[in-house]
Amino acid sequence: MSPRFLPHARLATLLEHLHERGFMTLAPQLLDDAILYRPLTSVDNLPHGVGVEQQPGSYRILHRDDQRCFAWANGPQALKPLTFSPEEILWQARRDAQGAIVFDAPSTKLKATAVLGVRSCDIAALKLQEAHFLDGVTRDSSFAAQRDSLLIIAVNCSHPAATCFCASTGDGPSCSSGYDLLFDELDEGFVIQSGSEMGASILAELPLASVTDTQLNAVELQQRAATLQQRHLPSRNLRDALFASLDHPRWQSVAERCLACGNCTSVCPTCFCHSEHDEPALSGEVSTHLRHWGSCFTADHSYIHGVVIRASIAERYRQWLTHKLGSWHDQYGRSGCVGCGRCIAWCPVGIDITEEATAICGEGVS
Amino acid sequence: MSVPHEAEIVERIQETPSIFTLRLRFTDPEIQRTYRFAPGQFNMLYLYGIGEIPISIVSDPRDDQLLDHTIRNVGRVTSGFAQLKAGDRIGVRGPFGRGWPMQQAEGKDVVVITGGLGCAPVVSVIHYVLRRRAQFGRLTIMQGVKHADDLIWREQYEAWSRLPDTQVLLAASQGGPLWPWRVGKVPVLFDEAQLNGNESTVMMCGPEGMMCASIPELRKRGVADENIWLSMERNMQCGVGKCGHCQHGGHFVCKNGPVFPLPEVAPLLGIRGF
To answer: Which residue of A40, A45, B22, B274 is most buried, as measured by CB atoms within 10 A?
Structure first.
């Protein structure tokens, strides 16, 4: 189907239509001085006229002169918490008076959820998480169920932040696949196209106008402008360069700045590490076994019978970077970085992955 | 993720003051009947209210009666397991991972090299070879321990040393008055080992320093890298290559290993921090 046009004033019809189809809609909203995905009850709650300035270690909300809803790059979280919960129950163990243990898997009932405002980098990250959690032999049923509940309404990124480098990783700023609906936002409204049968059937129900050549030109110019980003990685495949540089002095110098706080792994849309723990009830009759997001920046992550394999911050940062940009190629055939820049903005000391990778691997690695 | 199956501790054996073996049977007869594993694979053992630990399976896969797990009391979960007794119930998930290359080793000499507590994962190999003696060539068992007192299954080693076509070589970094074997680390044993490099499959388990020190000795004696297999140990929580803790470069040790042919892990082997 060719692109159609939806004026800002009619956006509420999309929300109503999704509601009629049984979808809960999550959309970006301004909360605590950041853009966060929350249930959307009214299009008035979208971040109209909000912009975001991001720099290493800095995320600041700006107020713009227009009424655009998506004139910012991203917030601290992508889709990851929606498909890979920050904490979830794996099973419950019940023990009776005789000491017998019964294990119950959690029963999950998920509500169909439409996510509005998904970025190209977020879709790329979702694909990487799918590769990890849904690989044929050991499919993660919880991830699969949560993924299947999502309808993806993407918005091509028109305002990349200074921290963005998706153009260099090949993951943005415009979407090429992986969405049900795709928007380009202009001052007067949205140019919309579908990317799935479900998306097409939703479009068919909306009061859309045809798109003018002026609008199409504006979209094209906007998409091209968004590719002009300040940051970039030296190459899309740094695997060999990184593993040839395991003794590089830069690992020590970045370790002297890094707090090993794990903010980067928490905001990274592809980091998949998690830890498991038990929460026994006070009654002693039931114990809940959960998983929660983990981080390779903690000592616990590599603990093994009395030994911590990565005792130093230098070893932990090296593990993170050599995995993200290096051994990810061995695991899933590409780098684990989608260029969203969150780890740069949300690092409390402003460590910049593009700067560190360039310092270690050199500029223009082939 | 699959939930654990309940198992009962049929017998608990105290091997040394800090090492014990739990002999398990699934309480569901159907699970017990259909459960299959290969030597070198491991289970996640769950202690009610505390958590899970990965423990390799020591018993022989032909023995469908009991599943033996030998555990050293070193941490929060293992100290809980240490307090269990016969009749207590635990959870078992598994088996996980790639085991030892037993079929590939058929018709060849088998060399088992272990250090520290590493012997548990390869004891299953020793049992496996001895119960199918005609299918394998010479069996060489090389074991290093820190202190003479750390050697578990001492009578077993002595019994093995008396078998035909079987050589047992033991070394302790610190010997003792009743230590009849060598004093030193595993590499000191190689001058006595009767190795036919071309015809041997080597299975190693234990501290990476020990494995790294043994590899040049094996190469000197003509063992090709692809015939050297190692069992790697890393933090494991899920057992199915999802939680990320066990990564060694691009490998998920729980899923792609824990047993690897040397060429797969050689680039990062022994490098601190991986």
So the answer is: B22
Searching chain B, which residue's CA lies closest to the CA of residue A279? B49
d(CA A196, CA A151): 10
Tell me: do A139 and A267 sit in the same domain.
no
Of B75, B249, B273, the CB nearest to A305: B75
Distance CA A50, CA A28 (A): 11
Partner residue opposite A276 with nearest CB, options B75, B238, B267: B238
Number of domains making up chain A: 2
Closest in A246, A278, A296 to B50, CB measured: A278
Inter-chain Cβ pairs, chain A and chain B, closer than 8 A: 125
Contacts of A41 (CB under 8 A, 6+ apart): none
A275 contacts in chain B (CB < 8 Å): 237, 243, 245
Hey, what CATH class is B102-268 in?
A: alpha beta
Fold of B5-96: Elongation Factor Tu (Ef-tu); domain 3 (2.40.30)
Band of pLDDT at residue B154, cut at 50, 70 and 90? confident
Give the span between the Cα atoms of A262 and B273, in whole angstroms.
Answer: 17
What is the nearest CA distance from B47 to chain A, expressed in angstroms?
Answer: 10
Domain that holds residue A326: 239-273+294-361
Q: What percent of chain A has pLDDT over 70?
A: 99
Same domain, A193 and A260: no
- d(C-alpha A40, C-alpha A31), whole Å: 13
Percent of chain B beyond pLDDT 70?
Answer: 99
Which helix H or strand E contains B24, and what residues bound it? strand B19-26
Question: Which residue of B lies nearest to A332 if distances are taken between CA atoms?
Answer: B250
Q: What confidence tens digit (pLDDT) does each residue in A129-154 have? A: 999 999 877 899 999 999 999 999 99
